[in-house]
What we know:
The protein is α/β, with parallel strands linked by helices. The protein has helices at 71-81, 140-153, 174-182, 192-201, 226-235, 237-250, and strands at residues 11-15, 26-35, 38-47, 50-56, 85-94, 104-106, 109-113, 157-159, 162-166, 187-189, 205-215.
Amino acid sequence: MIDVSERKVRLAIIGGTGVYDPRMLDGIREESVATPYGEVRFRIGTYAGEEVAFLARHGSNHSVPPHLINYRANIWGLKLLGVERVIATTAVGSCNPKMKPGDFVLTDQFIDFTKARISTFFDGGEAGVVHTDFTEPYCPECRGVLSAAAADTGITAHNGGCYVCTEGPRFETPAEIRMFTKLGGDLVGMTNVPEVTLAREAGLCYATVSMVTNFAAGISPTALTHEEVLEVMAANAENLKKLVMATLSNIPVARGCTCGRSAGAMKV
Length: 268
């Protein structure tokens, strides 16, 4: 168990579907931290001389479904490590014809259609009741660095997109996709909420790189399968790695955003 009083890991990657291997880092070791919500296991390595924490959202062998991920433990654990900046990856379906399979999207908004998840650290009692502003849900500074990194590496990334988060683990119906599209949704996935909301409550800078793996139900000409998702992720894994690592190399040490000063940012 890691002694968090002696540890400060500033940067973290949360790997989603298809992103389970942290071999982009050097000197990798496994560590764990205890949180009020359970134990969290990380792999920590170095990149460009700086320690980086890697967390596989679904477990190293995709054993945890989206609706059972311990989101609060994961974010609390990152906070305990001293993490300030988080780059998260997600695999998504597309409701937007302009965002095609294989494309990257730097999401800037979300719509929450989850049903049974605890999405806050503030449950009253000692934690208090806090209403956190989400006008800009994703760290604008980290998104700017991601966008610049994409341009520098020649990777096409849509700068902005609305992520609709569903409960899962089932895929959506064509009727649901038509509704999401009318509401302004561009992408559909199962994991970004409450991860993004908890990160803001924790005062972390959080940005998401979404990889479009398929067109959503009713748009795709074929039935949706998890294997299809993994195939597209595998085909684009090298570009995703290049984008994330170029971003980590260029994130400023001093934070120029307000993510760490959000109202009620929790203390651990």
